Amino acid sequence: MSIKIYLPFNYYCRKKPTNLYGQVQINEDNVVVYYVLEALDLEFGDKAINHVSSNTRFLGSILNGDFNADQSQYLKFNMRLCFTYNSSQPNITLVYIGITPEYLKHIKLILYEKQIMRNMFIGGESVNNQDAACNDCDFLELSRLAQAKVDTQKPTNHTIKRILYVLTLIADSPITIFKYVVENVFVNSIMIHTTIYKHFKEWQATCDKRTRSANIALDRIMGMTLMLILFSLATQPGDFLIPISHYVIDELYSLLKVLEGSPIGLKLNIHLNNFFLDCFKYHIELWSTFLDFIEPLVRQVFLAIGAFGSLGLTFQIALLVDLISVIGLHSHCFYIYTKVLYNVERKGLSVLWQVVRGNRFNMLKGRIESHNYMNRQLYLATIFFSAILFLFPTTLVYYIVFAALKALTFATLSIFEFFRRKLLNLPLEGCIKWFIKRCVDIECLQIKDVSPHEKACVIHKNHKINVSVYKIQTTQTEPNM
Fold first, then answer.
1. Rounded to an integer, what distance in angstroms lies between the CA atom of residue 461 and that of residue 383?
2. What pLDDT, in 10s, does the model give residues 385-411?
3. Fewer Cβ in 10 A, N or C end of the chain?
4. Does residue 163 sit within a domain?
5. Are 8 and 36 in contact (CB under 8 A)?
6. What is the pLDDT of residues 202-224, one digit of tens each?
7. Helix or strand or coil: residue 55?
């Protein structure tokens, strides 16, 4: 068994009779840990002994060295710790501890700064947001107790709380309405495959965890700012979408015109090339006609993007991702067509190549072996192999072009997805506190040995228990002992 005592550094130099309050915990490895959190003026009696706040209890006192009390007096006052001071030494000295087994030979007195422990973070997140798996660390428990103590000392104003509650209801009303709409049976069957619905589920999970309050607030502020910009600076925001859609269509026409000749010196099959061009141009004309038909509805899409600013900037980004996917739907269809045709021709060449070589794949044995084909089988296989072989370069060119276009669209959507997720998962609270130099990461903490002029010890049943004094400090600061 070992004993650790966490004591605020300003109490270590205290020259005043004081009552100490905090918590005591016994860990699974039989380590008794005393957390001293606060101190009040000395007051023996029932009020002092029974002092219990939300997270503290009476632990002991700091007394003058002239206080000659035996162990029965300590027990009378229900002390677990007792320190003394005098004019000859600069610091207090531990003279009594409630749990002192026979085999205990060493006690660790660890000094800490309250502000450092209250502002301790792990990986950019507050200690209160860490899960129960981290509870084995004394630093984390000390930081939780220190932060909880600050929260209980804050005065509660019921009027302010009511006002904040009303403002919160007003601010959350757009997301409540949106939640009611998307969870409707008929609407949900349509929106379940959209990016905005997927983002809504991620956003709701983040809110339920209550670990990213600063991120949610920043998201809402940025969304409403962009909404005001769209509604104030752009008289008709929806007018931008139709020209963009037609610009994409014109660029696809230009791309097909390039493929109509001999792109980069390649001589394509004329008949297959003309077939592809006729099919793709017809597809683009159908899409252009469809856009003209839904133009009144499309003009209002940017108004929807602006209105989604009341939900947050990430909702606007998610809606924009869905909008880009709709605008590039025809290019995605071209990629699917060429991909299917490319896979068919590639597989056909692979199979026919084995036939013209006089081989076949034995499915039972899982290997390629020789086979005697009839003449008409070899004749037909040679004809089909030659035809596919001469058509394959044209198909390959179209597949590469539209695969590159698909990859460009996917990269654009991935960039928006990256910013959307990062805005919610960025450790914003830790970054803000690090910027104003109030955040202390647990990896920056160090324990330094404090060597007193005389070796401190506790006398218990005629044997000495050595007391070592340490101090918790950060790597950015020098010790001020």
1. 105
2. 888 888 898 889 889 988 998 898 899
3. N
4. no
5. yes
6. 888 877 776 677 778 888 888 88
7. coil
